[in-house]
Design a protein that fits this description.
Structural class: mainly alpha
Mean pLDDT: 85
Number of helices: 10
Number of strands: 0
Order of helices and strands: HHHHHHHHHH
Strand content: under 5%
Amino acid sequence: MEKDKNLDLLRKVAVIIIGFYFGIQIVFSIILFQWPLTGIGLKFFVILQTILPGIAIILWARYNNLLNSDIFPFTISLNHFNIPIIVLFVIGFFLLSEGLSNAVLTLLPEDIVFDLERDIYIPSYNIIKMETSFDLIVIGLGLGIIIPLLNELIFRGLGLNVFRGAVGINKASVYSAALWAFLHMNPVDFLTLLIMGIVLAYITHKTGSLFLPIGIHVIFSLTELIYLNNFEFSELMDLPELYMSVLIIFLSIIFIVAGVRLTDYIYSSD
């Protein structure tokens, strides 16, 4: 009976998360189609389009008493903000993102890569490009801090906890990570996001806190923004040879495994 109840809650939470994300995305897309925006207005609008579903889900979960101290243990402690662990995972995730995306794009046919550039990469690059001080505030605060924070609250907080009650921590880590990766709507980055989500779920489970995953996610996002803003789009799409991408992936695995081992060592007695 308890298992059936947890499975029903899992399905309900999954539907609510997907519904809010896609529902608000569709509404905003219709508005944008009717009243086209450019420049900072467009950037602010797109960021708001991503932030609002997260806020709506958190409010829904709070209204349904799904937010408790077991899910969100917000006790400030240095044990839950370990700098060496954050550095290892940020470097590992950054290398993994670059290596996997470059490898996938290198292997794909040119016409598909062209479509991805037109439909996903160029619009995304134009959004994150910080050309003014106001851009810096809007993009840095929105994409670098608020959205990663909401992602962790929803997917490593609410989602992981609900899924764990229904299917156990191992499957919950994969399911919550897959849902997170799917909602990014970027097929090239799906595997990268899936791996990141599983690792962040492990860290959340191991430490019993969201502080470390939030720290890793925020610093990773800010690092990505800084990196992408230091290159023109044509330079970013100048793909390396496949063997270089494989080497980068191999290096990323070393850093991620080192981060997992260090996390396991530090929190093994907790």
